[in-house]
Structure formats: C-alpha cells, structure tokens
Amino acid sequence: MWRPILSFFTAFALAVVLMPVVIALSKKLKARQTVLHYVDNHAKKSGTPTMGGIGFIFALSAATLLCMSKQNTLTLAALLVTAGYGVVGFLDDFIKVYFKQNKGLGVWQKILFQAGIGLAVSFFAFYHEIIGGAVYIPFTLAQIELGWLAVPFFLLIFLSFTNAVNLTDGLDGLASSVTLVYMLFNAGLIIAAVYVFGDGQAFTPEYLNLVVFCGAVIGALAGFLCFNGYPAKIFMGDTGALALGGAVGALAVVSGMSLYSPLIGIMYVLTSLSVILQVAYFKKTKGKRIFLMAPLHHHFERKGVHESRIVAVYTAVTAVAGSLCLAVTLAVIA
User: Mean pLDDT throughout 101-122?
Assistant: First the structure.
C-alpha cells in the first residue's frame, strides 16, 4: 500500500512546484477570469488568473503514471477521461480568454463532448472483465447485476456527477476541497472491497491502482489548494472543473461504487438540485425564485455567510457523509 502514499506526495510536490509557474503564465498570457454581472459580490475577483486546472491535471497524471503498477486498465481509463475532460474545459476557457467574454463552448457542443466521453467509458466498463454490469450495493459491498441497463445507468451517473462537480466550482477552494474529501473516502471503500473480496482475485491489482489514482488526485488538489484557497490566487477554470468532474464520474463507473456516489457526494447532489429546482420554479411561476441565487452556495453567500465558512461546511458535510458510509460498510462486512 506504499504506492498510493507515494502518489499522494508526488502529486502534492508537483502541484506546489507547478502552480506558481501556471500563475505566472496565466498572467503573462492574460488568461484572467471574467465574473458574470449578476454575481456582483464577486466583482473584485474579476481578473484573477484562471485555467489553474492545468497544473493539478499534470501533477495527478504524472504521479499516477509514475506510481501505478501493472494491470492498470481501469486506472488508465479514469486518467484518460480526466485528461479528456480537461481538454474540453481548456477549449472552453481558451474561447473565453481569447474573445474576452464569459461564454465559451456552446451548450450543445458541451453535451456532445460529455455524452461521447460518457458513452465511451460506460461501454468500456460494461465490457471489462472485472466491472461488467455489476455495481456494489451501499453498506454491504454485495453486487447487483444490471445487465444491459448498466450502460445507460453508467452514462447517467457519469453525466450527473461531471456536471455536478462543475456546478460546485463557484467559491474559492470549494470544488477542490469537496472533491479531495470525496476521493479520500472513495479510496477507503475501494480498499475495503479489496480487503473483503480481493484475496487472490484478478481485480485486486486493478483496484489498488485505482487507489493510487485517488491518492494522486488528493495530493494534486492539496497542492492546488495552497493557491486556490481564499483568497484565491488562481481559479481552476473549466479546465480544472471539467477534469475533476471527469475524474469523479469515471472513478464511480470503473470502481463499481457508483451507488455510493450520491451518498458521499451529497453536496454535489444538493448543488445540482438547487439549480434544477430554481430553474423549474422560475419557469413555472414566471419569474419567482426558491433561492436568492443558485447554485446553493451562492444562496448562502446572499444570506451573508462568508465563502470560507461555506467551503468549510461543504467539506465537513462531505467528510461526515463519507465517514458514515465507510463506517457502516466496515461494520456490516466485519
């Protein structure tokens, strides 16, 4: 189990070294954030360097490749999806920066990219000898076979969580902190599955490499938070937000832990629900709102809660949810 620890420290060190370089390049190339006019309380953040996701994507990718062992097809798939989504996010950010406006890729362009990558990873998981159509039932680590329903289910999970992570990226350090904790407890569940079922099984090295990937993501985000915590010196941009969404979605699918995702990622779920409810209610009532502003973290800001406190609460709730999931699971399988 030394490989995940090494991947964490490698990714952390790389991120800490790379981020000042990324910040300097972003300033030189004038890759700066344009804040939407209706988020007026963030007006002072306009001009902050963006596209910082480049730094932690490189850090987590390098650490994973350096530290993983053989039998790593699931890990490589998760890494490719992360990088692929990072490229999509980079194109989105590049358009915004180049044309000096806050609208990047069109809605249908994003949907096309997301659906294409989502279908690819869903079919990959379904035809993989280890995953197939099976998913773990929360708290028992027993598996249920979905058959062909697995492909649309995997796609739903993937698209839901990739977009949910992106929506959560709205405050300094918010998406980074929540995703760091989310990955930590996902790694714990994967280790639990190996502990219970992995003695001499073919999936053991594959799953242990997924833990290496989790360690790399955690380390890279910890390093990134040194520069992205309040007040942020750089934003991750869609480059980073989409990459993190891809990492969360891909890990859920290829690890078989997709049914755990809404439980540990409860803040992702609440963030997405706040947007869905706000839009639906706004249209139905012709202009009325449930929240002062959506997503949910902006509602709390409008209520006067400082963003650092919001980030702390979101992170703490994710940690509590993850702790409960892991603790109950370990108690049941013990």
Answer: 83
Cα distances from 173 to residues 100, 114, 149, 261, in angstroms, run 24, 24, 36, 21
Buried b (16+ CB within 10 A) or exposed e, 58-86: bbbbbbbeebbeebbebbebbbbbbbbbb
Segment 139-148 long-range contacts (CB within 8 Å, at least 24 positions apart): 139/325, 139/328, 139/329, 139/332, 140/329, 140/332, 140/333, 141/192, 141/193, 141/196, 141/197, 141/329, 141/332, 141/333, 143/256
- Domain positions in the chain are 2-263
The region that residue 280 occupies, defined by phi over 0 for left and psi between -120 and 50 for alpha, beta otherwise, is alpha
Residue 37 binned pLDDT confidence (cut-offs 50, 70, 90): very low
According to DSSP, the residues that pair with 134 across neighbouring strands are 145
Q: b/e string for 260-293 if b means 16 or more Cβ within 10 A?
A: bbbbbbbbbbbbbebbeebeeeeeeeeeeeebeb
Q: Could you tell me how many residues make up the chain?
A: 334
Average pLDDT over residues 28-39: 65
- Residue 326 CB: number of other CB atoms within 10 A? 21
pLDDT band at residue 222 using 50, 70 and 90 as cut-offs: very high
Report how far residue 65's alpha carbon sits from residue 167's, in angstroms, rounded to the nearest whole number: 29
Tokens of 20: 């000042």
Task: Tell me the CA end-to-end span of the chain in Å, nearest whole number.
Answer: 21
Element (H, E) at 114: helix 107-127
Q: Tokens for 33? A: 């954030």
- Distances in Å between the Cα of 257 and the Cα atoms of 66, 142, 151, 253 are 25, 11, 15, 7
Q: Is 94 exposed, middle or buried (0-12, 13-18, 19+ CB in 10 A)?
A: middle
Average pLDDT, the chain: 90
DSSP lists the bridge partners of residue 32 as 49
SS3 138: coil
Q: Which residue has the higher pLDDT, 250 or 49?
A: 250
Residues near 319 by beta carbon (within 8 Å), at least 6 away in sequence: 181, 185
